[in-house]
Amino acid sequence: MYTTRIEVNLLAPLLEVKNLKTHFKTEGGVVASVNGVSFTVSKGETLAIVGESGCGKSVTSLSIMGLVAPPGKVVGGEILLEGENLLGKSHKEMRKLRGNKLSMIFQEPMTSLNPVFTIGNQLGEVFRNHQNADKKQARAKSIAMLESVGIPRADKVVDYFPHQLSGGMRQRVMIAMALACNPALLIADEPTTALDVTIQAQILELLKGLSKDRDTGVVLITHDLGVVAEMADRVVVMYAGEVVEEADVFELFARPRHPYTKGLLGSLPKLDEQREELDSIYGSVPNPLNMPGGCAFHPRCPVATEHCKSNVPMLEPVAAGHWARCFYSKE
């Protein structure tokens, strides 16, 4: 399995995000939600982006999709999909790419599906818009896609409305819509948050299988490290709009280097030990309009020194394929 991951990363990147900056203008000032984020994703690879709420991971995914709405704006960097810079595309060009070359699964399927249209109508629209399918062809393709994501009686479900399906079935419909045109890149933003544990496992297994079968690159946005361990090949840890650590999933879980990553992993219960209380990270995420000087994490960091309060650490290699943004990550 590890050999496969090395081979994946030797391929030319499917997606390259370079120094991405996405800011929001507010009455209180400019919020740098994404502040110089860089990473790559190869074909058939799953990259997990993790961090607390407000760290910038969802804004990163919306930036890639070209769906950042005013007052938000991508103000710097590059987003290269198969070598093409998406930030240079017009709205019309991005509409053609979305659902075709790149797709996204959102957190809550009930808010993403239109309640007044049938499943077949909404799924068929993908085939009509991107593959010029007629009504009959779109219906047949929709039924086939519903079957491919494990929905029973797909020929009946295609005529259902979203409220007639369970949360798990609605999420399968969203996956079917996202993969309908066999996109090169799939972004999954907390795809199992609203689902119970049993359905979560089914959805994750489904995503893993479809990604492998179709050689699709996946960006998985999540705060759940259990999902990361199950799904990811590599992991990017974000804090306050920046990447603070990146590594292979095995390396990250075995040898985390950034204090924030160590805190996240330390908060997880372990089967081989008994503790009355789990570890926690002191404090809370800083106000984006009043960021601390120096290292953004220093007010919460158990190893911070005076040096950390006035100097900004860079994201630097600490081992082969492993980077961390901390002055003391090599120690």
UniProtKB/TrEMBL annotation:
InterPro entries: AAA+_ATPase, ABC_Ni/Peptide_Import, ABC_transporter-like_ATP-bd, ABC_transporter-like_CS, Oligopep_ABC_C, P-loop_NTPase
Membrane topology: Peripheral membrane protein
Main location: membrane
GO MF term (any one): ATP binding
ABC transporter domain location: 15-265
Domain of life from the UniProt record: Bacteria
GO cellular component: plasma membrane
Any Pfam family matching the protein: ABC_tran
This protein's name: Peptide ABC transporter ATP-binding protein
